[in-house]
Q: What sequence folds into this?
């Protein structure tokens, strides 16, 4: 059974249709990428998957259950695209809070906190208030928060958005390493096609609320006779260039 | 219910708020402001009282030039005043006043011609007492009172000569003790100053409670708007806790901070009352006065405490709605400011309107609403007594608070908040376009 099944998702915001029948499946243990430009519908799709929004039509099943259910929330970690941090608490206090929410006060919570601190890798800075953190440090804390609870499905929306080249590389490495070590299924979105090629086994290309194509990266490139995902995307949306 | 998660989230809320200067500074400032306001009221009163005592130089313009007017000058000197004689000449009152001030006088007493004749014939003699002030103020005329008293005493004693009546008897012809009996409290107030102090408490406490409630609402609106502004709400809503638990943890964290803030306000309030009470307390030290027994009863205090807690919880929930619908702190504060009227207007009404003017229905309504209950209860507890239906009103307030908290927990979804924010922005945009 797939970890995640999205079938014919439609989402309207007033008179605007953000999703026009999005369907895809994510299998256990894979790193799946939802790729598309800004405004394509990636964030809306993710928000439906984690239960923050309800689809206007269509259906989502996560581990065979309705998203938003507290039992599902325990299995799924979501990293929003522009997730902020609390200004006046320290990174340590934040990670500690997350550990307590998921595991209470026992050994499991201590291990989760230890893992979170390791993933964040902020050294002594983790004991300072998060308002003093750089954008990259805040992202590391958020990635640590999402992965430290050993989710069965990590939903990461643009995990490297807004970061400089080095920070983005660090975060990519974190996701790759911990997804492999923890055996988690990862669903991530990005408008950076090269990034997705490096991280993901399978992808779905989304544009204007529709999935244009999906499958294993190498197979897709061969099927369309293109060099990379960027070229594939341009070909699919009909922009052939000069 | 996941208690450990609830505690962790409430602790996060508490720490994030208590370390935020935007939250803490207003509390500290209001605590500091109270005694400062007290001092600002007390200081001019003390200065005025001191000036009244220190008014010892009286400039006298004697237009009668009689033995009686000279006797009055000596009478004033006998009472400890220093009398400076001025020649009137052709000078008007304004010029005389300037000359008197130039010679160090604080008062100018003009004795009109016919002063002695009037005393002999039993008519009212004509005098004019001009207080010379460097600055017009509420207390600037106090200095004249002492001299006016001495002059009246002189005139009355002259008029009474040979009548066998004393000035004291004429001034206060009956042993009339004025008291105020507060019926519901079964208390006799003998000193008007104590009644004034009681009145001041009645007027101020509803307003102060309203101020505390508003600060709590603004704090919760700010705290919630920060979640939107800092983009932390999405993360929060995907944690494995229910929306009700999330809301409850927020309210608990905010509540703990608001209790600390209220404690600050109360310290300021106590200092304020201590300062204000120092004046009437000094006046009250007179023999034969009935002690002031207006302290509220322990059951009243318990009622007020529960009522205030419910009211603060209610206001915090209202603040959460404001904050949740605001994209940032600036919008939240802009929306919260006019909402303060729902707290202050009833408080002002409660403070100044006699309970009877409210009528049974009005009174019941104010008692049933969590926003107004502590104010009207505090007023009644001090000035009269709580109504017999008070426990029922407390239950009504509890029901209203629970209803609001429940409604807010339903609102606590990204879907609904996004929709409402979108609609509010559309309305605001249409309003701006319509205004052009």
A:
């Amino acid at each position: 059974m797939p970890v995640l099944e999205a079938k014919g998702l439609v989402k309207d915001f007033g008179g605007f249709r953000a999703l026009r029948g999005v369907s895809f499946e994510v299998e256990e243990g894979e790193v799946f990428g939802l790729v598309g430009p800004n405004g394509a519908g990636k964030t809306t799709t993710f928000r439906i998957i984690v239960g923050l929004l309800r689809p206007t039509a269509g259906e989502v099943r996560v581990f065979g259950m309705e998203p938003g259910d507290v039992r599902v929330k325990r299995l799924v970690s979501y990293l929003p695209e522009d997730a902020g941090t609390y200004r006046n608490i320290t990174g340590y206090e934040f990670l500690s809070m997350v550990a307590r929410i998921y595991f209470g006060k026992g050994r499991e919570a201590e291990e989760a906190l230890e893992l979170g601190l390791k993933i964040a890798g902020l050294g002594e800075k983790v004991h300072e208030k998060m308002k003093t953190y750089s954008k990259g440090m805040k992202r590391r804390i958020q990635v640590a928060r999402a992965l430290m609870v050993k989710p069965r499905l990590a939903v990461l929306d643009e995990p490297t958005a807004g970061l400089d080249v080095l920070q983005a590389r660090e975060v990519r490495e974190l996701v790759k390493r911990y997804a492999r070590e923890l055996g988690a299924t990862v669903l991530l979105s990005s408008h950076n096609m090269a990034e997705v090629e490096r991280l993901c086994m399978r992808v779905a290309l989304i544009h204007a609320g529709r999935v244009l194509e999906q499958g294993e990266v190498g197979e897709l490139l061969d099927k369309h006779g293109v060099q990379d995902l960027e070229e594939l995307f341009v070909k699919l949306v009909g922009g052939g260039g000069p | 219910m996941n208690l450990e998660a609830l505690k962790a989230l409430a602790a996060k809320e508490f720490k994030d708020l208590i370390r935020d200067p935007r939250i803490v500074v207003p509390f500290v400032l209001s605590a500091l402001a109270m005694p400062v306001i007290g001092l600002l009221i007390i200081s001019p009163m003390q200065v005025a009282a001191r000036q009244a005592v220190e008014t010892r130089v009286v400039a006298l313009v004697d237009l009668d030039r009689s033995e009686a007017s000279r006797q009055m000058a000596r009478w004033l000197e006998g009472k400890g005043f220093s009398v400076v004689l001025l020649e009137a000449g052709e000078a008007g009152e304004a010029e005389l006043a300037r000359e008197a001030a130039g010679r160090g006088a604080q008062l100018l007493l003009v004795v009109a011609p016919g002063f002695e004749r009037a005393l002999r014939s039993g008519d009212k003699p004509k005098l004019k007492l001009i207080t010379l002030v460097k600055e017009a103020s509420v207390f600037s005329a106090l200095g004249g009172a002492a001299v006016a008293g001495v002059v009246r005493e002189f005139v009355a004693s002259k008029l009474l000569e040979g009548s066998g009546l004393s000035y004291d008897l004429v001034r206060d012809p009956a042993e009339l003790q004025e008291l105020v009996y507060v019926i519901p409290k079964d208390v006799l107030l003998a000193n008007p100053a104590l009644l004034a102090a009681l009145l001041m408490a009645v007027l101020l406490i509803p307003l102060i409670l309203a101020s505390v409630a508003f600060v709590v609402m603004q704090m919760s609106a700010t705290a919630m708007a920060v979640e939107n502004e800092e983009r932390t709400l999405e993360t929060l809503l995907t944690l494995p806790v229910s929306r009700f638990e999330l809301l409850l943890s927020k309210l608990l964290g905010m509540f703990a901070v608001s209790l600390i803030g209220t404690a600050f306000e109360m310290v300021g309030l106590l200092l304020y009352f201590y300062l204000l009470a120092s004046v009437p307390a000094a006046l009250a030290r007179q023999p034969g006065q009935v002690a002031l027994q207006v302290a509220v009863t322990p059951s009243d205090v318990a009622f007020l405490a529960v009522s205030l807690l419910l009211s603060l919880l209610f206001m915090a929930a209202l603040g959460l709605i404001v904050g949740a619908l605001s994209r940032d702190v600036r919008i939240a504060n802009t929306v919260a400011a006019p909402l303060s009227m729902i707290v202050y207007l009833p408080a002002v009404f409660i403070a100044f309107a006699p309970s009877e003017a409210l009528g049974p229905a009005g009174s019941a309504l104010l008692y049933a609403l969590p926003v107004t209950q502590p104010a009207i209860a505090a007023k009644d507890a001090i000035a009269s007594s709580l109504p017999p239906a008070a426990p029922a009103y407390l239950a009504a307030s509890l029901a209203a608070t629970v209803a609001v908290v429940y409604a807010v927990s339903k609102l606590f979804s990204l879907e609904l908040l996004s929709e409402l924010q979108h609609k509010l922005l559309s309305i605001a945009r249409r309003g701006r376009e319509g205004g052009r």
